[in-house]
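User: Show me an example of a complex going from sequences to structure tokens.

Assistant: Sure. Here are the input components:
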Amino acid sequence: MDETPPVSSLESHLGYWLRAVSNNVSQGFARKLEDEGVTVAEWVFMRMLFDFETVSPSELAEAMGMTRGAISKLADRLVAKDLVERRASLADKRAQTLALKPAGRARVPVLAALADGNDREFFGVLEEEERGELDRLLRKIVSKRGLAAVTTD
Amino acid sequence: MDETPPVSSLESHLGYWLRAVSNNVSQGFARKLEDEGVTVAEWVFMRMLFDFETVSPSELAEAMGMTRGAISKLADRLVAKDLVERRASLADKRAQTLALKPAGRARVPVLAALADGNDREFFGVLEEEERGELDRLLRKIVSKRGLAAVTTD
DNA sequence: TCTTTCTAGTTGACTAGGAAACAATCCCCG
DNA sequence: CGGGGATTGTTTCCTAGTCAACTAGAAAGA
């Protein structure tokens, strides 16, 4: 009777398409950031510090969907580049606070412009309202599944 | 005058949300596959071999959006697990052909079921027609931007 | 108080992948 | 033919993450 078990195709999974597009967008973005000597994770890290003066590594790890270990090393790199500084916390000697240094702060608008350009490049193929819909759907998944994350790949 | 330069937020970029969701979906999937001792890349690799009997590493690299070097190592791992085999190509002594071994072939339906479950878990929060729309939008980006992602039709 | 337990951040071992150099082989053109 | 360039797959080195063990300090409880 030739009973072939039904095996779903790769293309039938939204996760597959999501991964394909996301990897591409991130790789494209990474390439643009390369000229600025910054990675995607570093951009996200700096953009977060730009808004919130006082951020702890743990909070950042949570917000970026990365482990504390990864944040620790990421911070090392940014400190080495003189874009970020670590400040000891007075209240709690274990804790620290991360902050942008002036050079880092000055860099953020430039990187933001690259992010804008990257988004235009990849999502410009969609109509305005399609972009709105995509945005809505992605946010819905994030909120319904309660994830706080952005990683980098 | 206080001319603050406008710095776009992380959340204003579709790439940001895409990355957030995609990473989450993939991490969730990776965790499910872990019990089977397989990675996401290995699943994709095997699923492709499942359909097309004869695939060269280069084609696979193209289809999976990875470098040939990465495919070479990925193949090494799968060969080591006895799921895949390399066959020399008769016509061209440089070339080779990758094929699933019986153990690998037997594994695919199980992994496909996990992929189905993962998709349900993450995208089940959307309505049926929202999923259709998301699918459409992602495919549109892939086709308009000519991403390598699998010759689909 | 002092001791146990928890929390913040760091570190080391390991993994997957990219970039580029490489060897083998093929192909084309003189 | 035969030699220069393309192409196939591998390899080496590097980067950026994870996980789990670790250190230092804080907190809670007897």
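The lines above are the inputs; the final block is the predicted structure for all four components together. Strands of chain A lie at 84-88, 96-100.
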